[in-house]
Amino acid sequence: MELITGKRPVDPEFGDSVDIVEWVRRKIREFEPLTNIVDKNVGNCRHVEEEMLLVLRIAVLCTAKLAKDRPFMRDIVSMLEEARPRRKGGSDSNDDGFDPASDVKDKPFFSLSPVTDLL
Asked: Phi/psi at 11 (nearest 5 deg)?
């Protein structure tokens, strides 16, 4: 979560006795656009932001309150592999090198995930 948000584990912005995990959970519960918490220093590229949101989703799963609800490491590796950029080079790609088939822009971020039950 630190890498995605650019925040430290405890930050005055979070409030008293609130760490980064609870801060992110609060943002999700309040339906705040998660693009608001992504580190703006990473760049202003929509595709990078989408990849960061996918990794944030994994981070939320990994920080479930109950250990039994957290994914196994092999599952985390698989999820991270799936979150890799799906950009293509060559003549069949767009000018920006992005594969439109992998665009997750219009897909709900947490709606089909067990994440919402873990918050």
From this structure: -140, 140
| Cβ within 8 Å of residue 45, ≥6 positions away | none
pLDDT in tens, 50-69: 888 899 999 999 999 999 99
Q: Strand pairing partners for 87?
A: 98
CA separation for the pair 98, 31 (Å, rounded): 28
CA–CA distance, 41 with 94 (Å, rounded to integer) = 25
pLDDT tens-digit map of 16-56: 889 999 999 999 999 999 888 888 887 677 778 888 889 99
Burial of 62 (0-12, 13-18, 19+ CB in 10 A): middle
DSSP for 30-56 reads TT--GGGTS-GGG-S-HHHHHHHHHHH
The parent domain of residue 34 ranges over: 2-118
Q: Count how many domains the chain has.
A: 1
Contact between 42 and 52 (Cβ < 8 Å): yes
